[in-house]
Design a protein that fits this description.
By secondary structure, this protein is an alpha/beta fold. The chain folds into 3 domains: 5-109, Class I glutamine amidotransferase (GATase) domain (Rossmann fold), CATH 3.40.50.880; 118-303, 3-Layer(aba) Sandwich (Rossmann fold), CATH 3.40.50.620; 322-417, GMP Synthetase, Chain A, domain 3 (2-Layer Sandwich). It has 13 helices and 17 strands. A 5-stranded parallel beta sheet has the order 2-1-3-6-7, with helices on one face. It has a 5-stranded parallel beta sheet with strand order 10-9-8-11-12, with helices on both faces. Strands 13, 14, 15, 16 and 17 form a 5-stranded mixed beta sheet that branches. The longest helix has 21 residues, at 212-232. It is globular and about 75 Å long.
Length: 430
């Protein structure tokens, strides 16, 4: 069943996702597209029922106000403009519409049906994947995180044994993470899984690299190289599956939106990519990805596991990665996760992790002066990963975690708690 869609055209708004989420919450599918989409591209989208022109503070780029093609107004779609005074449509607002106004536009003017749900979404994506892949094979980057796990389940439903999963241990995984991936996906779900230990390869490429963007792009590019090598060992691999989701694309920047950070699966892809991408989740927000996983029958413990960035601990070992700090991140993260689970916070807090900066502070150990690293704990709650609030962790829990880290993790003499919401901070440090 094809789902009706409202298209949001980005003319510099910082609140595109707010509008998109409100429409989806009404049961109607919505997508954000760049302002310079052509009439042909717009008509090529399935079941478009209306267009929202969403202007804002970034509408002027290099002294020129961006606008849509005048021909879009002649396509016959209902159009509403937000903070876009020069729009050539009858309905123009000076601010985001309230719920009643938005509902009137979506249902009364656009005649959209509230048929946006996971069952329909999965049916559509299965059909699209089958059409795209045909009788060929897909190589899936399976990190074991929520996104790649849901992609694996969806692709298995669509193409079955045409899916080949590759798990790359880049040396930046959490404690026992790779072992867990092999156990769940190979031994329990019986997926066609290839395990590659590329620890030394990745750490060698990252040696001395301080810039976060460069680290992300090195990790993303090296992932692709590993997949290409594995693909050459197989027959008929023409596609690369990825767990790309909507915040990855939005935060990596559009033509009128400023980049927050490039994600390894978006901004880090090499220009000479040898695969065609298969990304069935790329229009879903994080909570929608989890709902998709439940609908696909994945166990809740897998669907609601801790989010983990593609670059792994590489963006939690701040600055140039060193093996001693990488081990400190891995061990402190394991302690944090263990104690949060004991306190029941693993079911309450959306994401929690530790980072280790690339500088030391003075301290005292064994009655002697020491100069060692600090561990920073971060625990946040969010719905869509676009904004986040800080979890107010009980002091006794924090004290226990702190004491364990200081006693059990080498080269650490200080523990701090990050109190910064998103924005202005991002979820990760790099």
């Amino acid at each position: 069943m094809k789902q009706d869609m409202i298209v949001i055209l980005d003319l510099g708004s910082t609140e595109n996702t707010v509008v998109a989420r409100e429409i989806r919450d009404m049961g109607v599918y919505s997508e954000i597209h760049p302002h310079d989409i052509t009439p042909e591209e717009l008509n090529g989208l399935d079941n478009v029922k209306g267009i929202i022109l969403n202007g804002g503070e970034n509408r002027v780029v290099d002294g020129v106000a961006v606008d849509v093609s005048p021909a879009l107004y002649d396509l016959g779609y209902p159009v509403i403009a937000i903070d876009h005074p020069t729009a050539k449509c009858a309905q123009k607002l000076d601010a985001l519409p309230d719920e009643a106004t938005l509902k009137k536009f979506v249902f009364d003017e656009c005649k959209a049906e509230p048929n946006w749900n996971m069952k329909n979404f999965i049916a559509d994506q299965v059909e699209l994947v089958k059409r795209q892949v045909g009788d060929r094979k897909v190589l899936l980057a399976l990190s074991g995180g929520v996104d790649s796990s849901v992609v694996a389940a969806l692709l298995l439903k669509a193409i079955g044994q045409q899916l080949v999963c590759v798990h790359v241990n880049h040396g930046l995984m959490r404690k026992n993470e790779s072992e867990s991936v092999v156990e769940v996906f190979q031994n329990q779900l019986h997926a066609n899984l290839i395990y590659v230990d590329a620890t030394e390869r990745f750490l060698g490429k990252l040696e001395g690299v301080k810039d976060p963007e460069e680290k992300r792009k090195i990790i993303g590019g090296e992932f692709i190289r590993v997949f290409e090598e594995e693909a050459r060992k197989l027959d008929g691999i023409d596609f690369l599956g990825q767990g790309t989701i909507y915040p990855d694309i939005i935060e990596s920047g559009t033509k009128t939106a400023k980049m927050v950070k490039s994600h390894h699966n978006v901004g880090g892809l090499p220009e000479d990519l040898q695969f065609e991408l298969v990304e069935p989740l790329k229009q879903l927000f994080k909570d929608e990805v989890r709902a998709c996983g439940i609908e696909l029958g994945l166990p809740p413990h897998m669907v609601y596991r801790q989010p983990f960035p593609g670059p792994g601990l590489g963006v939690r070992c701040l600055g140039a990665i060193t093996r001693d700090r990488l081990e400190a991140v891995r061990e402190s993260d394991a302690i944090l996760r263990e104690e949060f689970e004991k306190a029941g916070l693993d079911k309450k807090v959306w994401q929690y992790f530790t980072v280790v900066p690339d500088f030391k502070s003075v301290g005292m150990k064994n009655h002697a002066r020491c100069f060692e690293y600090m561990v920073i704990i971060r625990a946040i709650n969010t719905i869509d990963a676009m904004t986040a609030s800080i979890e107010k962790v009980d002091w006794d829990v924090l004290e226990k975690i702190t004491n364990r880290i200081l006693a059990e993790v080498e080269n650490v003499n200080r523990v701090c708690y990050d109190m910064s919401p998103k924005p202005p901070a991002t979820i990760e440090f790099e």
